[in-house]
Amino acid sequence: MMKKYYKKCLLSCILAVSLLCGCAGGTDAGESEEGAARQDTESVSEQEEKDSSAVPDFEGNDMEGNAVTSEIFSGSRLTMVNVWATYCSPCLNEMPELGELAREYDKEDFQLIGIVSNVPEGADEEKLELVEVLIEQTEADYPHLLLNESLNDGLLSGVSAVPTTFFIGQDGKILDTVVGARDKAAWKEIIDGILEESPES
C-alpha cells in the first residue's frame, strides 16, 4: 500500500517537472526546442507535398492492448493524430483541451488519436504507468498508441518535433500537418474548416 502511494507521488512529481521544463522537440529526447521552431518554418511546397500523401499502412496497439490499424481512419470523416512525448510540456499542456475536443464531436465526423512517440510497445511497467498517469491527469481520454516499427517508419518518419499533429481524411490521406501546440479555439477552427470542405459520405 505504502509502495503504491510512493509510486503515485513520484509520478506526480515527474508530471510537475515535465510541465515546468521545456519540450525537447523531436521524437529523440536529444533534440532541442529550436528543432520545433525550425519545423514551423518548413516550406509550403514541402508541407503540401507531405500533406497530399496517404498514410502508410500500420499495425499497433493502444494503451488497453487493443489492436489498431490504418483502417481506423475509415471510421470518421476526419481523424486528428497528435504525436506527443512524456517529457514534452507543450504536449501535456494542450492535452486537457484535446480531451475536451474529442468529447465534443460526433465520432462519425471527428476522432482524436494520440501517439506516444518516446514509449515503445513492450516498454517496462514504469514507463507504461507514467503514460497512464499523464493521460489520466490531463483527462486526454481518447485512444493513445505506443510507438512501434510500422508507425516509426511510416507516419512518424518525417516527425522531428513534438507535438506534431496530422489531420487525416476518411480515405487515409493527410490533409494537414501542424507542428507545435495550439489552444482549443485554434484547433477547433482547423477541425471545423476541414470538415466544412470535406463532403459527407
Sheet-strand content, in percent, reads 15-25%
Tally of alpha and pi helices: 7
**Class derived from helix and strand content:** alpha/beta
Largest sheet: number of strands, sense, barrel closure: 5 strands, mixed
Q: Remind me, CATH topology?
A: Glutaredoxin
CATH architecture: 3-Layer(aba) Sandwich
**Contiguous uncertain segments of 5+ residues:** 1-22, 24-51
Overall geometry comes to globular
Specify the CATH class. Alpha Beta
Helix-strand string: HHHEEEHEHEHEEH
> Approximately how much helix is present in the residues?
40-55%
Mean pLDDT: 81
Report how far apart the termini are.
Answer: 52 Å
Tell me the domain tally. Answer: 1
> What is the number of beta strands?
7
Question: What does the model show?
Answer:
With 201 residues, this protein is α/β, with parallel strands linked by helices. The protein has a single domain (2-197), classed as Glutaredoxin (3-Layer(aba) Sandwich). It is built from 7 helices and 7 strands; from the N terminus they run H-H-H-E-E-E-H-E-H-E-H-E-E-H. It has helices at residues 2-20, 33-40, 44-51, 89-104, 125-138, 149-153, 184-197, and strands spanning 59-61, 67-69, 78-84, 110-120, 144-147, 164-169, 174-179. Strands 5-4-3-6-7 form a 5-stranded mixed sheet, sandwiched between helices. A two-stranded antiparallel sheet has the order 1-2. Strand 6 and strand 7 form a beta hairpin. Helix 1 packs across helix 5 (125-138) and helix 4 packs across helix 5 (125-138). The chain is globular, with a radius of gyration of 16 Å. The termini are far apart. The model is unreliable at 1-22 and 24-51 (pLDDT under 50).
